[in-house]
Amino acid sequence: MLNAFKDFIAKGNVMDMAVGIIIGAAFTAIVTSMVGDLINPIIGLFTGGVDFTNHYAVLAGEVPAGASLDIARETGASVFAYGSFIMAVINFLIIAFVVFMLVKYVNKVKSLAEKPDDVAPEVATGPSEKDILIEIRDALKTR
User: Fold this and answer.
1) pTM for the complete prediction?
2) If 0-12 CB within 10 Å is exposed, 13-18 middle and 19+ buried, where does residue 127 land?
């Protein structure tokens, strides 16, 4: 049983998947930072300084006026955090686009690697040695 498990782990697909998960986790941190640190401020410029992450509606409970989403959650109030959802959608769209571009690039490189080398066209070099010997033989037979 242990040997079967070793064989399973050693297969390329499992190792590729593990590497993909690790890189995906690191990539998620990068995209989260990009959205929070770069895209949110740009969106804030166009929306007059509005920060989507702290937009919410209180469904039940008491929340101090102007409190951030974290404070509203700490008070135990039931909040509808639509700003966080908007940011999650933006994160998803960015990740999906980057993964799309990455897969497109990898497929292009893969197809170039699988493309057979260009075969040089045949150059007419005249008759071969065998052809000449056959002609000589045939010429001698007719004499």
Assistant:
1) 0.52
2) exposed
